[in-house]
Design a protein that fits this description.
globular, about 270 residues, single chain, binds D-glutamic acid, 13 helices, about 15% strand
Length: about 270
């Protein structure tokens, strides 16, 4: 039994797709979440900058003595491998578990990846899928505007502007006849109902936040790191800019009011800027 929290980070609200999956699948675990709302988006930045941001996010979470660290961020998982490979605690990113799930799900071997520009350009999803199945055909599309839609709460199913943007991004994937699409940026599962309405039910969507949590569950179990079964998990959220936007949108994304547990963290700022 291990009562230490799990540390989860993302550039902003995207990682809440992983938090939601923790609530549902690891209900005994405590969470420390860090959303770098001051510097979102990460996905349009250089490799060097993303590496530096990731190192700082990890340093912030390590102060809490986390038993496991999760980069609930496709961009960090794809690009900041130097930073994440130095983490002392067990580490979970979103790329590997999503690719494993996609290869398992596809029937025609044609897999689409929707992610940020940095993730797509890194080739991380292609490499990982080909490691598992060298025959798979992969079709990647950078979808930076979708991050902005989520950060601004434009996720309601009858938002026709969001739907039209998604339709444009997905067209090349549908033209390529994919039967499985990895939502390789953790912001995108928040748009899953709209994405699914565009793809139709014949396409399986892989939620990268959810898959990372399933991987974490396995790691905790295998290493005897699970919390007491009678413990009711708690969650604390830290953001590097004002809390209000985060709290309001998190309520829609998680379906619960977390505003009392969101802190604008001077500590986070200090960990980041010294
Ligand atoms: N949610 C992140 C990802 O999974 C980052 C999006 C961004 O900040 O551009 O890639």
């Amino acid at each position: 039994m291990d009562t230490r929290p799990i540390g989860i980070f993302d550039s902003g609200l995207g990682g809440l797709s992983a938090v939601k999956a923790v609530f549902q699948n690891l209900p005994n675990e405590d969470i420390i979440y860090f959303g770098d709302t001051q510097r979102v988006p990460y996905g349009s930045r250089s490799e060097k900058t993303i590496e530096a941001f990731a190192r700082e996010d990890i340093a912030f979470l390590e102060q809490f003595g986390c038993k496991l660290i999760m980069a609930a961020c496709g961009t960090v998982s794809s690009v900041a491998v130097n930073a994440t490979s130095k983490i002392k605690e067990p580490f979970v990113g979103v790329v590997k578990p999503s690719c494993v799930a996609a290869v398992k799900a596809t029937k025609n071997g044609r897999i689409g990846v929707m992610a940020t520009s940095a993730s797509i350009n890194s080739g991380a999803y292609d490499r990982e899928i080909h490691r598992i199945d060298p025959q798979a055909r992969i079709f990647g599309v950078s979808c930076p505007v979708l991050v902005t839609l989520v950060e601004n709460n434009w996720i309601d199913e009858d938002n026709y502007i969001s739907k039209e943007i998604i339709r444009r991004y997905i067209k090349p994937l549908l033209d390529a006849d994919v039967d499985t699409v990895i939502l390789g940026c953790t912001h995108f599962p928040h748009l899953a109902p709209i994405i699914q309405s565009v793809t139709g039910e014949g396409v399986t969507l892989i939620d990268s936040g959810f898959e990372a949590v399933m991987q974490a569950k396995k790691l905790l179990f295998e290493n005897g790191l699970e919390n007491d079964k009678s413990h009711i998990g708690t969650a604390k959220y830290f953001v590097s800019d004002k809390t209000q936007n985060f709290s309001v949108i998190a309520k829609t994304l998680l379906g619960t009011d977390i505003s009392d547990n969101v802190t604008f963290s001077e500590t986070a700022r200090q960990a980041i800027y010294g």
